[in-house]
Amino acid sequence: MRVFLQRITAGVQSAGFIHPKVVENQEEVKMKKSIILGALTIAGLSAGAAAAGTLDDVKARGTLNCGVTTGLVGFAAPDANGEWVGFDVSVCRAVAAAVLGDATAVEFVPTTGKTRFTALSSGEIDLLARNTTWTFSRDTDLKFDFVGVNYYDGQGFLVPKALGVSSAKDLDGATVCIQTGTTTELNLADFFRANNISYEPVPIETNAEGTQQYLAGACDTYTTDASGLASTRATFENPGDHVLLPEIVSKEPLGPLVRHGDNEWGDIVRWTLNALITAEELGVSSTNVAEMATSTTNPEVARLLGTEGELGGMIGLDADWAKRAIESEGNYGEIFAKNIGEETPIGLARGLNAQWTDGGLLYSPPFR
Amino acid sequence: MSDTHEHSVAFVRTTDIEQQPAPSNAAGPVKWMRDNLFATWPNALLTVASAYVIYLILTATLPWILGGLWNTSSLAECREVLQGKSAACFSVLTDRWNQLLFGFKYPSEFYWRPTLALVLMFFALAPVLFFDLPRKLLIMTLLYPFVAYWLIWGGTIWVPVFALLGFIAGYFVYARFVAQNFALGFFGGVAAAAVVWYVAGFVVSMLAPESPLLASVPSRDLGGFMLNMMLGLTCVSLSIPLGIALALGRQSSMPLIKWMCVVFIEFIRGVPLITLLFVASVMLAYFFPPDATVDLFLRVVIMITIFSAAYIAEVVRGGLAALPKGQYEAADSLGLDYAQAMRLIILPQALKISIPGIVNIAVGLFKDTTLVSVISMFDLVGMIRGPILASTDWNGVYWELLGFAAVLFFVVCYGISQYSQWLERRLATDHR
User: Fold this and answer.
1) How many domains is chain B partitioned into structurally?
2) Is B412 exposed, middle or buried (0-12, 13-18, 19+ CB in 10 A)?
3) Partner of A329 at 20 to 30 A CA spacing, among B35, B75, B267, B301?
């Protein structure tokens, strides 16, 4: 049986179906021998094998496999040169910088809303940073661990100024463009029922379709995540003619997630994210991090940047891990400003995503 | 008698009247319009109404197209230049031209490789499509898959070379034994090819140089219209032979083969293509260890191929069923065995009847390749829906991008359709 399978595998190799780069390397060839055998092992077995030692896998591979969206303005998209940029992309790069010392050692795996969870649980990716809402069932039933929140989002309403509406509660009897099969659809129904007002849904499939329908006047208001509405509005010819209503009708904490069960790896991602947030709180940025590392008198900054204490060693990394993460992409505030902040066409205000000291929700546990 | 006419007729013309043009209402464009556009009052009304609609469409679209901008760097800049005028922002096409054609990850210094593969494709297809060309040119067609593979994916040349050697070995074994027994030849050929490939698995890794002549490009980096063309061409050319085999298998008198083919065809036809693609991209990942998966491109090719093969099988079966029983009996009475009868008598006629149906499926298949965008492969539509529309520069450009995609697909599909009509006329040797 084994010989037969090996023959098939070898045949597949030589026909060039498996990527030739692999064939160049003798050792990898041996590994590929196990492909077909692996194919016959049951799903649970391979998932179990993937669950242990993600850190070692990543280090051995030399690249981080990071799941991102196939394209969402400001959060993840390849630019004209094919380089991935965006808010979620920066999280991947920071983790790669912390673990591998190279922010470019990331293999971005584009995932759709349908393929993202299988990609993570099957071990195809080590980390999913794809504006995914942290919910109970995803954390527990789907067996993932959300390591934190990098963007607090919520469902909002976009209306033309000409409609003369200043609150979502005035939308009684309105036609609402709504993406089908999403949590936003359920939130919408909840909100209108709770306020005892009626609406007429106009079902749409994609954001592009929603934009067209809304601009064509097929619906009075368009509802989806507020960040999405803001970036959609930024593409309008006359963004000033449309307003976001003040009501946010749902909680959408978006954050990176890893597989359940590999807590060492989860810790690394969690504390890399926390390091970015803490860095902003402590005033450490990509420009002054090198200087701070040597001259700081603040003990927490010293612990964060590895000049004092053994924090890196506790999570299996070296002392400079957080310093590299901050150096590569900047602190949380820099990442926000660069990708989705008010200076960019998307123009999102910090709002809930401000530091707790500025009245926001960002609150990293201490580095101690 | 010669003066008879002089008395009875006042004037006799002795020369021919010079030929006059037909009256203006009985020839030329006027007559054509009277006959075709204004034959009756209702016709005339419809003509005027249609002309008005066409006028409306053109006045709406032509200024938009002709006034389009081609060299701005973002949608915002387009709008700034246009100052509220309505015109296209084609700059997105020039700015992202290479991404639309090759995807965003294919190394730009290697763009010549897929381009060369495309040019060679025309040479490789010519002898298949136009059978008046010398048959020797078919060698080019047979070599093309290996050359194209090497050009597009790069890497060591020994992979395609040994793949080709496997086929050659298989062919020689087949040719040696087929005279005795078709099954012996067929399975012997398959076995010989498998042995060569098995050996090659070890040899290639030893021969492979450190830095191959053409740097290798992983499948994940393929994208754009190139991916659609590759999927379309590969799947059509693989699914036609597979479909014919399935159709013959379904007609077989051997119950095992017959039922296998029936179950296969009916199962595949009963499942949406998108489901098969999801299985290829998502479900299979569970069965492989994390680092070792069969190439996604290959998985998708297999799924699309078996999908269209099931449809082509039914089209070919229709062609087989349309042949009079006499043709089968004539072949038998000549003493031909099954393979000969099929090859020489039955299939040439059945396939000719099936051409429109097969082309129909080929065109559909080519357009279906855009479905891979839902499993996060960046084909032309995937590039548009994903990276390009998600960039801050071009978020909001829909008509220009999707119109461009439509034009590309239309050119290819219209070409296929024109070819098939030419082929039908060329093969029209029947008694209609």
Assistant:
1) 3
2) middle
3) B75
The pLDDT, as a whole number, for residue B148 is 94
**Structural domain includes residue B132:** no
Do residues B38 and B44 make contact, with C-beta atoms less than 8 angstroms apart? yes
pLDDT at A35 over 70: no
Residue ranges covered by each domain of chain A: 2-40, 55-152+253-358, 155-248
- Is A77's CB within 8 Å of B390's CB? yes
CA distance A280 to A258: 24
Is residue B367 a part of any domain in this protein? Answer: yes
Residue with tokens 């990442």: A335
C-alpha span between B329 and B323 (Å, rounded): 11
Architecture label for domain A55-152+253-358: 3-Layer(aba) Sandwich (3.40)
Angstrom distance (rounded) from CA A50 to CA A258: 12
Asked if B254 and B401 sit in the same domain, the reply is yes
| A226 CB burial (10 A radius; 0-12, 13-18, 19+) | buried
Angstrom CA distances, A210 to A75, B243, B374, B385, stand at: 19, 41, 18, 14
Q: Which helix (H) or strand (E) holds A133?
A: strand A127-133
The pLDDT assigned to B282 comes to 74
Q: A139: which 2 tokens?
A: 């954390």
pLDDT at A181: 67
Which of A35-44, A160-169, A178-187, B337-346 has the least mean pLDDT?
A35-44
* Number of A–B residue contacts, CB under 8 Å: 205
Name which of B84, B295, B391 is nearest A17 (Cβ-Cβ). B295
Spatial contact of A145 and A266, defined as CB atoms under 8 Å apart: yes
pLDDT at A42 over 50: no
- Which residues between 190 and 249 in chain A have a beta carbon less than 8 angstroms from any beta carbon of chain B? 206, 208, 211-212, 231, 234-237
A7 neighbourhood in chain B, CB within 8 Å: 194, 198
**CA–CA distance, A25 with A142 (Å, rounded to integer):** 36
Percent of chain B exceeding pLDDT 70 equals: 96
User: Do B193 and B236 sit in the same domain of this protein?
Assistant: no
Give the mean model confidence (pLDDT) for residues A149-160: 93
Looking at B252-295, list the stretches that DSSP marks H as alpha helix, in order from N- to C-terminal side.
255-269, 273-278, 284-287
Mean pLDDT computed over B325-353: 90
Q: Are residues B260 and B391 in the same domain?
A: yes
Looking at chain B, how many residues does it have? Answer: 432
pLDDT tens profile B82-108:
887 888 999 999 999 999 999 988 988
CA dihedral sign, ordered B264, B267, B273, B278? negative
Q: Is residue B120 a part of any domain in this protein?
A: no
Is B288 in contact with A16 (Cβ distance < 8 A)? no
The CB-side HSE value for B328 (13 A sphere, CA atoms) comes to: 9
CB contact under 8 A, B99 and A61: no
Residue A272 has which token pair?
A: 């890399």
Q: What is the CATH number of domain A155-248?
A: 3.40.190.10
Q: Which residues of A touch B303 (CB under 8 A)?
A: none
Residue (of B153, B155, B152, B122) closest to B137 by Cα position = B122
A88 pLDDT higher than 90: yes
The whole domain housing B306 covers 102-106+217-426
Confirm if A90 and A339 have CB atoms less than 8 A apart: yes
pLDDT exceeds cutoff 60 at A37:
no
Alpha helices in chain A (DSSP H): 2-14, 20-24, 26-40, 43-51, 54-61, 87-100, 116-121, 136-140, 183-194, 207-215, 226-234, 263-282, 289-295, 299-305, 311-314, 321-329, 332-339
With beta carbons less than 8 A apart as the criterion, state whether B48 and B42 touch: no
Query: Of the candidates B287, B280, B270, which has an alpha carbon nearest to the alpha carbon of residue B304?
Result: B280
